[in-house]
Amino acid sequence: MNNQDMSILHLVLQASWVVQLVMLILVAASVASWAMIFRKMQTLNKVRAQNEGFEQDFWSGTSLNDLYISATRNAKTGGPMERVFASGMREYQKLRERRITNADTLMDGTRRAMRASFQREMDEIESGLPFLGTVASVSPYVGLFGTVWGVMHAFTGFANMEQITLATVAPGIAEALVATAMGLFAAIPAVTAYNRYAHKIDRIASQQETFIEEFSNILQRNVSGVGSSTASGH
Known about the structure:
mainly alpha
């Protein structure tokens, strides 16, 4: 048995069609997960930059009305925190236009609007993460299935042999083990990215929840004070 016969490519080509199908599925899962990993990295970096930029503007002393006008204008290009703010201000102003002066009613409506917007934004941010989790958890088992099938196929072929040596056993077993290796190759990057991105998303969610509470406190003070103060700096 020469070295070429034991190359990865040769082992893949000589594997049974079931094992080859398993390998093809794992390759496709690996390619898709790497594409999702890079896409998610860009998305989360963009979201973090947008949120930090808006938070700086929010605490710079700019009036809430000016921030709301800017957030409305940037509805499609702004960050999640900016859209959450716009949802809260929109509901707050609608309630004020309806001459609702009860502080509890105003704040309950505003918080519900921001919470609904927050949930929509988090659903969008978390998109793709379940796919990485699925690849991370399923790929090793898919690879193991390919290995078990390959070993069964190899031993079936040994049944007709009168003399079995390491040279005859090694290729069949090696073909089967390639499937396990490919399963791990698909799973390890996916599980690493999943854990890293889940932590980043938790931080983004915590940051936005803190902003909702801080913004609610500002509006609460405005409701308790002079009604026109919403247009001033905060």
